[in-house]
Structure formats: structure tokens, C-alpha cells
Amino acid sequence: MSKKINRVQRLARREEGDVIKRIVILSILSVVIIVLIFTLGIPLLGNFADLLGKTLGSKGTAASSQSQISSPPVLDSLPTATNSATLAVSGFASGGDKVEIFLNSNKVGEADVTDGKFKYESVNLKSGDNEISAKAVSSAGKESDSSEVSKVTLNTTAPKLKVDNPTDGQSFSGVSKITVQGASDPNAEVLANGFLANVGSDGKFEVSIPLSGGDNTVEVKAIDNAGNTTVVKIKVHLSS
How confident is the model at residue 43, as a pLDDT? Predict the structure, then answer.
């Protein structure tokens, strides 16, 4: 009987030892797993967080870009040349609260947008060629692309004008019209007493005008594309 009891006790102690071993092994494995989580799992978690942030950030950037002003302003027609040192710039802007005006890529002023329209009263032009453009800007600081560039030439030099025929003080008889001839700039418009002359590529012009009996004043006027004007007046006499 005692032998059976001793054998049962030995089996119980053996099972108890096995249980303790398993507990120890599980404890060691738990420690190893915890160490692995902190050494490998956290960086992996950080990488995942970075990836998530980049994904959300790219979506935010896309949303931000969509919130930008999509359409640039449209400038009203400007003259290709002018003799005025200041120029008003106006146009239409479908987005933005104001419009920035640029001269030769440099910002020179801004104008408020009201009902889609804007006007900047005075751009100070430089002698020669000028490039004018604009951008729409929102209250949040969002900008549109630049508008199309308008090129304007500032020219304050009057066109040349020489009248070869008739000569000052010349008298005519037996005619109702005379021919006015001379030379000016090739791109100038020439008028004699309001009659438009034909101007050749070399600047020479010719036009016929009527005369009335007695003294007549022939006024010849040359106007270039910037609006500069030169005037020559000649006195002639028509005998009845």
C-alpha cells in the first residue's frame, strides 16, 4: 500500500515539475515576444503611421490644389501702342477677391473684384515695349495662373511728315481738285483736309482734295499707331 502511495506522490511531483517547466517556458516566450514587439513592432507601427500620413497628406494636397482658383483673369483689349505714359487695365475674373496687376513680370498694383469685374486705373508704362498680365487672388491667399500677356508699346515720338505738292502760296486755276503728295512714316495714317491718303510701304502718300475759289488752307495730318500726330498747313489760291 505504501508503495502505491509513493508512486502516486512521485507522479504528482513529476507532473508539478512539468507544469513549472511549462510556466517558465511560457514566461520566457512572453518576455521574448514583448521584446520583439517593442524592438520591431513599434518601428513597423511608425512606418505604417508614416504611410498613412503620406496618404492622407497627398489627399489633403489634392484637396488644396482643387481649392486653388482654376481660371486666370481675362484682360479687356489693350492698344498695341500708345503715347500715354499711364494705362488703365480692366477685365473679368471668375474667381478671387482681388486681381494683381503685373508689368514686365513685376507686380505694380491690385484691384478689387466686383461682380466678376475689375479695373486698375494707372499702370505706369516704360518707354518701348511693355508686357501686362494679371493674377486672381482669393482672401485665403490662393492664386490663379497668370492671364494671357498683352503687349503695349509706349511711343511718344511724332511721325515725320513732308508735303512735296502743293507748295505754300501756290496758285491754281481752271481746276476743282488738286493732288497732295509727300512722305511720312510707313505705318502712319495720312489725311489731307479729312481725305484719307494712300500710303505706300516706303511712306510716300498721295490724295486728291477739292478746292473752293479764292484762298484755301490745305491741312495735312499724319497719325501713327500710338496716336502721335504731326500737322503741316499750306496756303494755296484757286483763281475763278
Answer: 54
- Which class for 200: exposed (0-12), middle (13-18), buried (19 or more C-beta within 10 A)? exposed
Helix (H, G, I), strand (E, B) or coil at 185: coil
Domain boundaries, given as residue ranges, for the chain: 1-66, 74-154, 161-239
pLDDT of residue 101: 97
| Residue numbers in the chain where pLDDT is lower than 70 | 1-17, 19, 29, 31-69
Report how far residue 42's alpha carbon sits from residue 48's, in angstroms, rounded to the nearest whole number: 10
Domain 161-239 class in CATH: mainly beta
Q: Are 94 and 113 in contact (CB under 8 A)?
A: no
Residue burial 53-88, b: 16+ Cβ < 10 Å; e: rest: eeeeeeeeeeeeeeeebeebbebeebeebbbeeebe
Fold match, 74-154 / 161-239: yes
pLDDT reported for residue 17 = 66
- In this structure, CATH architecture of domain 74-154: Sandwich (2.60)
Q: What's the residue count for the chain?
A: 240
Q: Are 174 and 136 in contact (CB under 8 A)?
A: no
